[in-house]
Amino acid sequence: MNSRIIYPTDDGGVAVIVPAPECGLTIEQIAAKDVPAGKPFKIVDVTDIPSDRTFRNAWEYQA
Amino acid sequence: MAGTIIVDRIESDASYASSINVAAQVTFSNTVNFGVSSVAPVAGVYSPTTNNLAFTTASTERMRIDSAGNVGIGTSSPTTYKSAKLAIRNSASSGEAVLAIINNSSNVYEGAGILLGSTAASTNYGATWLYHTYNTNSPTNTTSYAFNISQRATDGTYVSNIWNVDYQNSVSSWYRPNTSALQMQLDASNNLLFNSGYGSAAIAYGCRAWVKFNGTGTVAISGSGNVTSITDNGTGDYTVNFTTAMPDVNYAVSGFSGTNRLVAWNQTSLNYATTGLRIAHTTAGSGETDDRAERISVSIFR
Q: Is 0.80 surpassed by the pTM of this model?
């Protein structure tokens, strides 16, 4: 899958859900299952996620 | 002589080689009543007891239809065998088959050799299809059953077989051919035991979930089982999300990443849930989380 799901964490950061290609679920189904209840989320392309993780904990979620 | 002969009785005196020859056919226009006779004809049909019909060859009864319509071949008491409507018994000891069913189709993939079906409402006892009586000397034994599938080599030895024994105690066992060595068993508690070179059959504890992913650069999963996703929570901080939840949180975890790095519990979040497991990837010694793992493997056992 070339999609990722992002949602804001409680400490102001951002969590990125990486889908398992072999799980048999769609990205929407994974979002419904693995995003914590009540959290806003967005489905983005993998290229939208920085590959440089030097400052990973400084990432922020933008609605 | 042409025409019709109406007789009250035809009887042959055994002292004469008498016979009745009919060039075409004999037609019975009404009920054929064989009466009750204890003397079996050489080859024919007679009624050995009231409401029973028997067929003979060589002066021996071969097939019986009893008063209830049950059919026995090789036995005059078909209902002896679990009240069977049809019982076939071969008492010979020279290894003949009891029943041969030949699918003579030119296409071996067409049709069925044996087709078993049932409209029985119960899916329990009555729907068990094939029995092999455990005690071959007592084929009416109803206390213990074994199901046997076997293949014999030309020299008569068994080359493969599967025995499912002790059915009525809810234990199914498979033994290695020609031995009493237990290879696999489904026990009364639904545990699956097998011996895959361990020396004895033991309960198999399965890996309930596993995942391999890289934790650096563009995080991606390269392989998984019972895992829908991992959540990248931050530096060296991941949650493995299970497809099917664990029955409880008493599962064991095995993790691997690389030299001088560890996959550890995330002690700060303590997210040890039935739906997922939160882990930390740390540098050995410092205990700090890091993102330099190209291969992180996590397995869950329960």
A: no
A51 and chain B in contact, CB less than 8 A? yes
Nearest in space to B291 (alpha carbons), one of B250, B236, B225? B236
pLDDT in tens, chain A (63 residues): 799 999 999 999 999 999 999 999 999 999 999 999 999 999 999 999 999 988 998 999 887
User: In this complex, which of B219, B227, B228 lies closest to A16 when CB atoms are compared?
Assistant: B219
DSSP 8-class letter at B40: P
Contacts of A19 in chain B (CB under 8 A): 221, 228-229
Q: Is A18 near chain B, with CB under 8 Å?
A: yes
Residue B29, CA distances (Å) to B26, B32, B33 in order: 10, 9, 12
Strands lying side by side in the sheet with B145-152: B132-133, B145-152, B158-164
Cα Rg of chain B (Å, integer): 35
Residue A31 φ/ψ, nearest 5 degrees: -60, -45
Burial B42-70 (b: 16+ CB within 10 A, else e): eeeebebeeebbbbbeeeebebbebeeeb
Asked whether A40 and A8 are in contact (CB, 8 A), the reply is yes
Neighbours of B293 (CB within 10 A): 22
CA dist A56 and B219 (Å) reads: 12
Interchain contact A39–B (C-beta under 8 A): no
Burial class (CB in 10 A: 0-12, 13-18, 19+), A60: exposed
CA–CA gap between residue B58 and residue B293 (Å, rounded): 86
